Amino acid sequence: MPEASASKLRPAPNGVLLDTLSEFVERPGSEAIAYLLALLLVRRRVLYEEQTMEHVLNEDPATRWSLISPADGRRWSVPLVQPEPSTLPDLQNELTALLFTEE
Length: 103
Fold this sequence. Notes:
This protein is of the alpha+beta class. Helix content is about 45%, strand content about 15%.
C-alpha cells in the first residue's frame, strides 16, 4: 500500500511546457529535445503546424517546423532534428521530468 505522504505525478501545465519549448529553441545544443517536446505538444493539440505562404517562402520546410499556439498566438520555428539513438534514454528521462510535476 502506498504511503500517505507519497506525492502523485500530474501533467505539467501547457503554459509551462510552451515556455520551456521557447527556452530549448533558443539554447544551442537543445535541438533534439526541442523537437521532441514540440512533437508532443502537437500530439496534445496545444500547438499546430502553421500553413502560410510566408512560411513557405521564408524557411526551408526540410530544416524547420513552423508552429503556432492558438491559445495566445505565439509562434515557434523548431529545428527538425532526429535524435541520435544513443541519446534516446537521456532524452526520454528529460522529457518525463518536464511533462510531469509532483502534486
